[in-house]
Amino acid sequence: MHGLINRALQGFLVDMHGAKIWAEVRSQANLPFDEFETMLSYDHGLTRDTFDAACAVLHRDPDSLLEDIGTYLVTYNNLEPLRRLLRFGGATFLDFLYSLDELADRGRLAMPDIEMPRLNLQQAEGLGSFRLRAEWELPGIAALLLGSLRAMADDYGALVFLSLDGAEKGAEYLRIDLLDAQFSAGRQFNLAQSGLI
Amino acid sequence: MMMQSPDLRAVPIHDALDLLMPMHLCFNAQDLVTHAGPTFQKMTSHQGVVGQTLAELFELRKPFAFEASQSWLSLAGQPLQLALAQAPELPLRGTIARLSDQSGGILNLSLGLSFVQGIEEFGLNLNDFAPCDQTVELLYLHEANQVVSGESRKLTTRLMQARALAEEQALTDTLTGLSNRRALEAVLSRLLSRKDAQFALMHLDLDYFKQVNDTYGHAAGDHVLLHVAHVMRSDLRAGDMAARFGGDEFVILLRDCDDVDYVRSIAERLIAALEAPIKFEGHLCEISASIGITLSSMYSQPKAAQLLNDADVALYSSKAAGRACATVFQPECATRASTR
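Output (structure tokens, whole complex):
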């Protein structure tokens, strides 16, 4: 797994649960270093061990922890750049949903060797209902996306109902019901980055 | 033949143009703006550009061969570099298409490479770009790039710091593989912290090494230094320590040793071994060594700096005595050294 992904897991544990928890996870996972490097690549097994250790240390089931991580990625203050990059997907939440199929390409545009989830949005029965098919190198991508998409909906000011929708043939599914695209004002997004120049 | 009205206001294609090219202007045969796309209106703060001439609105930068008296229609099809008169520091790109009935033209604009500043300056947002316009993707890439290169910089900085720290903490001389000054001083201070430690220090300086370097080059010099290190390693006991102090200077620490004659015999054996000619690329390099010796047993309260200094003073005596010999430190050496 790309260092950025491992670093996100580490960041979540440190920022949300403290350095002590991270130290405990690190030791349970037998990590041979103190910190993941963002720009390096690591064996998938190492990522899995770290995540399993996090579940054990925090007494959490994998899906709910992944959901929290997904939310953290979009909402944590220091990760504002990531939220901004995601908001480039579209001007409205629906546009954003439609852009999810491009997410992998978008990610690779920024970081050519990163393992991005391969997403495919499908129409489901009912107005504003979708099924998101997701494939990734590690299990649990749908739960992670659940947390991230819920936070993104909030960001856009959209009201959505999200639920895990099973898995088959190496793909996981998420059900998305867009109830109200303009439920609240949401958070502001200006193309111009303040203080950029 | 009746000329069609040059007034484009009634043209039903405007809505389509606004959607496809939100940063465009329609103008008539007199260069008067008849319609502006929504993003262009935003860029000019909705001040009503209709009725102004293109020459009033823009500074045309390229092509050069354009007379003020010419109509902008004559620029049709050419790549244009221009800027808004109200924002001359933001270069824009443009193209003019001539309407086939000669009633006017359409000028379409893009932010070109100044897109980052342009978006900031004009307060543009996702909706201000045509759906097929890649400017937003460029901006995305630009931001992503900043994040990624920021991370790269952090990694480089961390690696550089780690390297500096490692170098600072290194205990080995990189050329010879012997210990370095830092390592020897650490061992010395450990030994001196024990009351009963008895050891000898030899300060060794190669003779004629400069000639080898000057005659046969630095590669020969390095080869000789490696050979010297090899001789020292094979001549010393396991617990002893040889350190390169830089250049052609070495310090040897002999543990559990309070016998002056024994130390002197080792020094002489070393000198003899080093005097054997060293082969390098068909040449024979000949060197020798001068040595200064001191023993911890000669001091009531031995101190590292004092020992190293006294060994150095004794080394100077060896050099003064014609090189290629070993001298044991005696207080009168110091007197002689101080008057030199």
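Chain A touches chain B at residues 4, 37-40, 81-82, 84-85, 88, 90-91, 106, 109-111, 189-193, 196-197 (CB under 8 Å).
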